[in-house]
Design goal:
322 residues, alpha+beta, 4 strands, globular
Amino acid sequence: MSLVKLRFTMIGTLALLIAVSTFFFTVVLSLMGIMNIAALAFFVIGFNIIQWLIAPYLISGLYRTKEVSKSDNPKLHSMVGRLSQKIGLKMPKVMIANIPIPNAFAYGSPIAGSRVAVTTGLLKELEDEEVEAVLGHELGHLKHKDVQIMMFASVLPAIFYYIGYSMMLSAWYGGGRQREGGGAAPVLIGIACMAIYWILTLFVLALSRLREYYADQRSASVVEDGARKLSEALAKIVASTGKMKRHRREVGNVSSFKALFIEDPDSAERDQIAISGTRMFKTDQQLVQEILSRKVSGLDKLLELLSTHPNIVKRLQALQKL
């Protein structure tokens, strides 16, 4: 899929998400007291904005990230600086997360600034050229303002979740009054809102997967031979992560903000089972071909619908076309 076609697909998905949300929201407003629902929506939006503003500090604490200066790691700083210039992006803060699992992520907010982080595991497992391709992907997220877009998109399902939850809670604790009035409407509206929440969440997950493809293509366009380098990086991340269950326990719930990562650690564990034993005596490119030789099953497609990241086979296939 070309960059232009992918961009229009993302815009269309976001537009559809907004349209569906607006339609359902209008229906709910017509069935209930407008002021109460509007106040709840205002609260949810405000809560998410505050969460977005302070999230970088939470992420840095959870993943033990530390800003590194040019003197601390000149090679990493040079990579980020050079790629930022090529992309046309103000250089973000360079962070290293003290996590043995190989991964990387970009994050930030207006008060915390933009940040790009790589884990100690990534620097250990990947070659320099592969680290560069991963950085190109993460800087692509910052260039596309994916943090802001996904925050906005995630607010829409959240509104219906809190409306549904509050309606069902109200009906539960006010059950006597509801039975006297013979009104089951709050319960039905609550159940409907929870169903709408799940529908909209599928849209948000689809948008997240599209943005991963988009960031992959950005890396391939700014890094020399980027498609090959990123393919090998992703294959090695999947192969290595699946073998690190002991480290997963050591660092706790590393998947708390997994939507930020270049590859979902939970999916990597499942994918590694299918390629178990293929890493030891093969080159990086042979590992890529091993993953590409897998067939995407119906179960894989179902799991992908519920994932923030594309299926690894489909992702590598998209990179092969570049």
